[in-house]
């Protein structure tokens, strides 16, 4: 890539006044509302707004949250993953408008508690794809509460519970004191098999430490390089790969043959456009079965790593970190991607690896992309000219083009 031209991902390292949004999920009875009460009682959470998604004609959960004020929003027209995403986007924009008019104090964080049966993926897609909302809010990750007492009984029976865990950035283990040490250890092994890239945090009864829970650093370029090895999870413990193209690096065991994960290591930095095309076609081909893809990529012409993040067929706009991590396996500056999918066979994994290894050059990638109008990574292929503050609004993950500014100003 020509260093004199802009890369097809953000070069800004800081968010421009965007409010972090955290999605709090977990299966029925896992302890989400209990955790929410513990979090909102903390003085450092005084500036947080809480959105609660209720199901049924009579909402109960929001009455169990002790903090009832203007910063609590009830989304009760359906499940967030099914019908209420538009309501969520409108509620976020109303929150922004009220802050702009100084009707409420500035909000420092938004917490969205989903129903116990919700799939977080549509919520993440909505947050990433709505350009007006994403200009003002940024996704800070998914927190999934896991009931240590019941998890092993629930996981084989409920796909929703497995998906919630597979999409998590951090797994918050509740009721470990009731489950006991042996059962909690067994649950942790199950969780590591489902999502090896997610940090596991034991919750103490009635206590919550915001500093340990928030700031997953998965969607934000201001994450410090040392955190990259943290959120890439199991990658840090993998052995150095042999000098062969895209060989497996210790894939995690599958859970009941349904959700499995594996890591792809790139011995050399692939051309960006060819990689973007290959990954986009992979997301298309395995749509509905690839729950999550995330990792750091080396790109020719760049001295820093690029954060790659995909959720359920949607590709987030890529950003780059300020520098490569200095310690751990990522210090070798090789790209690594974690793939988490449902009902993926060994043949599926082999095909994904083969497609990445055979990614075309830049010119060929652009030619092929012209025949793929719905490519999830199409925006990755386009180089953007950096805009000055007078021309556009810069964010850490993208640049808002001037043609959108009128629409933003009308709504802002």
TrEMBL record:
Keywords: Chaperone, Hydrolase, Nucleotide-binding. GO terms for cellular component: cytoplasm. GO terms for molecular function: hydrolase activity; nucleotide binding. It catalyses: GTP + H2O = GDP + phosphate + H(+). InterPro entries: CobW-likC_sf (IPR036627), CobW-like_C (IPR011629), CobW/HypB/UreG_nucleotide-bd (IPR003495), P-loop_NTPase (IPR027417), Zinc-reg_GTPase_activator (IPR051316). The keyword Nucleotide-binding applies. Residues 259-356 form the CobW C-terminal domain. Belongs to the SIMIBI class G3E GTPase family. ZNG1 subfamily. This is CobW C-terminal domain-containing protein.
